[in-house]
Amino acid sequence: MSRKTALVVCPGRGSYNRPELGYIQQHLPAASPFRQQLGEFDALRAELGLATVTELDSAASFSNARHIKAENAAALIFSAGLADFSQINRDKFDIVAITGNSMGWYTALGCAGVWQGRDSMQLVTSMAQLTAGAAGGQFIYPLVNSDWQLDIDKQARLAEQLYLHQGALFMSIAYGGYAVLAGTQSAVQQAMQALPPCDERFPLLLPGHAAFHSPLMQSAADQALAHFAEPLFATPQLPLIDGRGVIWPSQLAQPSALKAYTLGQQVCDTFNFSRAIQVAVKEFAPEHIILLGPGSGLGGAVAQSLIALNWQGLSSKQDFSHAQQADCPFVLSMGLPEQRQLVC
């Protein structure tokens, strides 16, 4: 059986919620080699006086105060992503590159072997604590219509708010057909009040989020760069595409440069997830895109990024939905049981 080439995409903050409780235990086989690494993660977090990943994932009920707390949510998302990655059937798929959204970049580093063992959980936990302690907030607003095509009016409204709040409001994440804005609490509140409501949900404040991927994170970046040593970063074993759309080649990318980008620029600058997806499909031409869990929320943003590119003739939500009805869809989400079985 010939293997299909695949791009792997890792979800970011906000992907482990009430419906995902128990995700790791449910999907990770008892005999999985990843269980040893999960045990190491648990041991480290116990030493740090934090709830273990297994304890959080196996809780009887979901607690917003506990599970959405930055250092806990980050640990759950990172562990779930690595667990899913370990379950991809390598006899079926040849992984040609990895990328991720926002915190998903950390998971991508773990999948590619840049962050390893206990140190990877130490980095994830510490970065969550450093950035969560910063000021500001984030909210999300759509840039597309109901058929996932660019809406010029929405784009103009958002640009106006960025102009009016220069130095206090920033483009945080380009997330497919959505813009995530970050800024001071005052700028976020004023912009959300000024933007006309749409789709019954937006503008949507992201709970528990600071002004990620903005200059307001500079202090957190400085602390991270000073605290973590270069040896915690290794040469990637698989190609990576970062939040600028820059490709980090396997076996060649320098750990020092990865550290500088990951703990510095990536923390303080816009994370262009859309561009990462578009560069990945253009440069690697994967036969499939595999979305890691937890959850299955990445699908829309990935599809919208492909539609903006007119990838393989996709020009609308309807086009994408029709293409996904194939026996083995182009985009395979491990958070959806029927698609997961095609991956594992």
Would you mind describing this structure in some detail?
With 344 residues, this protein is an alpha/beta fold. It has 15 helices and eleven strands. The protein has helices at 23-27, 34-47, 53-57, 64-67, 70-87, 104-111, 117-132, 152-164, 185-194, 218-227, 255-268, 273-284, 298-309, 317-323, 337-343; strands at 4-10, 93-100, 137-142, 169-175, 178-183, 204-205, 240-241, 247-248, 271-272, 288-291, 331-333. The strands form two sheets. The chain has a six-stranded mixed β-sheet, sandwiched between helices. A five-stranded mixed β-sheet has the order 6-3-5-4-9. Helix 2 (34-47) crosses helix 7. The longest helix is centred in the N-terminal third of the chain and has 18 residues, at 70-87.
Structural class: alpha/beta
- Gyration radius over CA: 19 Å
- Proportion in β-strands: 5-15%
Instruction: Profile the largest sheet.
Output: 6 strands, mixed
Overall form: globular
Helix content: 40-55%
Give the averaged pLDDT, no decimals: 96
First and last CA, distance: 15 Å
Give the low-pLDDT segments: none
Tally of helical runs: 15
Order of helices and strands: EHHHHHEHHEHEEHEHEEHEHEHHEH
Number of strands: 11
Reading side by side through the largest sheet, how are the strands ordered? Answer: 8-7-2-1-10-11
